[in-house]
Structures are given as C-alpha cells and as structure tokens.
Amino acid sequence: MENEKIIVLDFGGQYNQLIARRVRECNVYCEIASYRTDLEEIKAQHPKGIIFTGGPNSVYDPASPTYTKEIFELGIPILGICYGAQLMMHLLGGRVGRAPVREYGKIEVQVDTNTALFTDVSPSTICWMSHNDYIEEIAPGFTVTAHSAHCPAAAMQDVSRGLYAVQFHPEVLHTPEGKKMLSNFVYQVCGCHGDWKMDTFVESTIASLRAKVGNGRVLCALSGGVDSSVAAVLLSKAVGNQLTCVFVDTGLMRKNEGDEVEAVFGPEGPYQLHFIRVNAQERFFSKLAGVTDPETKRKIIGEEFIRVFEEEAKKIGAVDFLVQGTIYPDVVESGLGGESTVIKSHHNVGGLPDYVDFKEIIEPLRNLFKDEVRQAGLELGIPHYLVYRQPFPGPGLGIRIIGEVTPDKVQMVQEADAVFREEVASAGLDTQINQYFAALTNMHSVGVMGDERTYDYAIALRAVTTTDFMTAESAELPWELLGKVANRIVNEVPHVNRVLYDCTGKPPATIEFE
Ligand code: XMP
Questions:
Q1: Residue ranges making up the domain that contains 492
Q2: In Å, what is the CA distance from 389 to each residue of 221, 332, 441?
Q3: Which of 469, 470, 473 to mutate to test ligand 1, by most ligand atoms within 8 A of the CB atom?
Q4: Confidence class for position 338, pLDDT limits 50, 70, 90
Q5: 430 within some domain
Q6: Domain identity same for 427 and 470
Q7: Is 298 close to ligand 1, i.e. is its CB under 6 Å away?
Q8: Residue 171 annotated as catalytic
C-alpha cells in the first residue's frame, strides 16, 4: 500500500528536515527532494501536497535556486515557506525586494483565522521570522492572510489554485502554533487522511521484507544500539532463523552491555534468529596496546571490527542480504534529500560490503527519522531501556580513556560510568540529559585516603543537553548529585582519587574527550 505523500522541495533551507519531521508528526509521510528534481519525477510520486523550503538566497539574484512555473499548474497544493514563499510570488508575478526592516526572531503576527491555513490558530500569534527580503507586492490572484508590524504580506493564499505562502517558519518550535498550521495544510488543504503510523509501518515493512527475502539468508551486524536493534527485530519478525546477527564484543562497551545485548537477542531472548556473540576483547586490547593517538585508536578499532566481522561472515558463507541501519537523516545528509542512490559513506559499519559475500543491502529504516525508529522499536516490543539508549560512539570506551587503553583502565571507566548513570537515573534526570558518561583522564594526582597518600587517576564526568549533537551545553547538574557521584566513585572504584565535572559547551569543546 502506498502512503499519502507530501514532498518537501528543498531550496537549501537549514530546516528542511524539520519540515519533514513536523509533517510526519501529523501522521502524513513526507520526503525531501532537491529543487533540482525533475517535474516529471515529482508528478510520478503523486504527492498530495508540496512544500517549498526556505533558503539563504534572494529570488531576484539570477543564480538563485528556482523551479519551473509549471509546478503551479499541476493542481497539487503548494505551501511556500520563507524563501519558498518569495519564490512563489516572484515566479507568479509578485515583487520581492530588500526589506526596509529586517525581521529576525519571534515576531507577533496577525493572521486571518477564517482561512484554511490558520483555522484554530490564535488571531495574534508568535512566529519565527528570519528574512532580509520581503514580499513587496503579492502575485495576481492572491490575497494577504497575515501581516506583522514590518511585514505587510506575512502570509498569502490563492485558494482557487491551492497555493499558500508564509514568510515565517512554521516548522520551528519558536512558532508555537506552527505545527497546527502545517497540520491544517496537509489535512484541510491537501485532504490527507493521516495514514503514516508506526504500527502500520512495522506491519507493512515486515510483510515487504518477507516478500523480498523469500528463502534467502540475511546477515546483520548488531551493535545493541537502537538502529541496528530495530532493524534486526524487523528482520527477525519477517524471516526468523534466516537471519544471523553477529554481535562483536570489543571489550570497549559499557559495564554489562555485552551481556545485556545477549540477554535480548541471544537464545534466551524473545526473538527468533541466529545470534553469534564474538568475544573479541583480547584482540582489541592487544591491537590498542601502547597506542595513544585518538585518531589512530579510532582507526584500529574500526579496522579490527571489520576484520572480526569478516571472519565470522566467512564462517557463515555466502548470504543473500546484508542489513544496514541507515536512517533518513543519513540519506538526506549524504546528498540532497530524496536522491535515493546515495548511502552515507561514514556509516558506523561502513566498509563491510567490501569484505562480505552478499548480493544486496537491505536498509529497513532508510525512510525513518530517529524518533520514528524509536517508536517502531516500541511497537516491536523492544525493551524501553534499549530503545531510549543514549548515543554511544562506535569506538566505545576506546575514546573515553585518554591515552593508552588497557583492560584495567576499561574496568575503571566502566565502574565509574555505571555509578554516574545509576545516580543520574535515580535523580530522575536521565530523560532530560541527552548524553552523559564518565571518562578516564590520564592525569595522576596526589590524594589522601585514610591516613595514606595516594597517587591515582582522575575521572571526568560529562553531561550535555543538545538537540542535534552538533552544538551542546554542559548540563547544570545539582551539586548534591555531583557530590554523591564523586563520593561513590572514589570509594567504589579502585585507583581513582579525584572526580572532575566538565563545564564546557560544544563548541569550543566536543562532547567526547577524544
Ligand atoms: P563529538 O565528540 O564530536 O560527538 O562532540 C558528537 C556525537 O558523536 C558521537 N561520536 C562518535 N560516534 N564514532 C561514532 O560513531 C565516533 O568516532 C564518534 N566520536 C563522537 C558522540 O558520542 C556524540 O554523540
């Protein structure tokens, strides 16, 4: 069954993914396509509506991205946002120029609530504006449906042609009623019914995986992270024992993590699949002995992982399909969205296809945003703690131990990290902090324990809040919590006599220490 679809035509706006996510939150499937996409290709997808994104350019600059005017004649409703609104006006005979007053930030906008787009929206509503140009004159056939103090045409419509345009950004959370407006567009204007739901996605994906795989054999590298876990469970439900999951325990995972993964996916767990756990700890430790440079450690860990996986794959022999946990942002970020041939090159398990004997890659999560992957995980009955697991870097604790990695140091950082996680969770802060962990510095310092002088390690704690992991703020943890964690760590973890808290944001620091 084909889902109803909205196409976000991307003119280079920084919020292209946000628009698609908001539309999907309205239960309508949405994909991002480059403005370079041919009109015939757009038509062939039978979208129920099209949204033009914003973008950094000026429509009157001849080098700016544009589109054929024919798109307005398809009879498909179109919503233009910011640059997209200006482009619509420009192409249809309106006039866009430099605004006498540049609007940036949260602006009060008066909207006509008797219009489809603003139904149930407050007559005076806060909208996020960010524009240097403005619409001086709307195109023939349009009427103005919203204005602000410095923007006489903040929204406009031509109902007969199904064309709508807003100067502001309804997709960002700074526009509190923006989601309502997008929902009005997809339901009231485009006539969608809302058939994008994770329970039906899960059901139809399992059915189509079953049809695709047939009697074939499927191989999956399972890390225990949310993407590979959800992908594995979908395949397990589709083809059961035809699926083999290889889980490489690098020895660089968090405390008990290897056993936790095995408990869920191993023979004692609820899923039908062949589970292979490779205890490769010693191999990783010996490769890492004496190595201190972070990038070299990363490279060694990545290469060793591939080698171990390759050896396992050789034992299994030829398979028909290899599973990859690629998700939609990987697809969008690896080129312009919707250009479906590109695969993210720096994927965590990237490089595998060169080493493993398989015919085809399957990417069951290719169309999902991260929050949708999590929802699918819950639909599939995957334990909550696994679905909401915080991000964990591919090289694992290898980059949370500054300098040389040794089994003793791994144990220290695992114990300290377990204490920190336990206390953050019992303070009820685990859902408010996006990533938090302990790292082992290579600083030795003097301490005193009982009556004895010690010369031991310092543990650094890191906790950040972030939405995209590109920028982050150090979380303001309660002093009482930090004190308790510090106290427990120095008492419970041998050879640690000092605990530090990292107050640096990103930038200038990164989230990880190496
Ligand atoms: P940084 O340290 O760059 O981290 O601020 C941003 C996010 O990426 C994760 N990270 C990694 N993930 N391989 C990964 O798979 C890596 O080498 C790596 N380094 C950092 C980090 O945990 C954070 O979520």
A1: 400-501
A2: 18, 23, 24
A3: 469
A4: very low
A5: yes
A6: yes
A7: yes
A8: yes
